[in-house]
Specification:
The chain has helices spanning 2-24, 42-51; strands at 38-41, 60-70, 74-77, 81-85, 96-107, 112-120. It has 123 residues and is of the alpha/beta class. It has a single domain (31-120), classed as OB fold (Dihydrolipoamide Acetyltransferase, E2P), CATH 2.40.50. The protein has a five-stranded mixed beta barrel with strand order 2-3-4-6-5.
């Protein structure tokens, strides 16, 4: 009987270890495969995030706007949204773009919405 209880305890520990490992080391989100929660302009997103509580944080959005600044690792869209890009394609100032990415939140110091994992999706 004692041997049987040790086997049960060992099996429970193995199951807990496997479940814990799978929980801690989950696959990362693929933002480009997710459906956008919000589709609109960069200015509309900024108005939404400054006018109310931050309900769009950590969600996928698709934004339209024009490039107002180019940075080393991203760009600013319509003076409203900073988009961090994995790779910077050849874009020019005032070019209209559609960008999909994850909202990090609103930065009240710079008055910009911050996004990461962004990708330009228009041709």
């Amino acid at each position: 009987m004692k041997r049987k209880s040790w086997i049960i305890v060992a099996l429970v520990l193995v199951v807990v270890a496997v479940l814990g490992y799978n929980y801690l080391y989950q696959d990362h989100r693929d933002i480009q495969q997710e459906t956008a929660v919000f589709k609109g302009t960069a200015s509309e997103l900024k108005t939404l995030l400054t006018g109310s509580e931050d309900t769009l944080s950590n969600t996928t959005v698709e934004l339209r706007g024009y490039v107002t600044a180019l940075e080393l690792d991203g760009l600013v869209l319509s003076n409203s949204v900073y988009c961090k890009l994995d790779s910077i394609p050849e874009v020019s100032l005032q070019e209209n773009l559609i960008i999909k990415g994850r909202v990090l939140g609103y930065d009240s110091l710079f008055e910009l919405v911050s996004m990461d994992q962004c990708k330009i999706i228009n041709d």
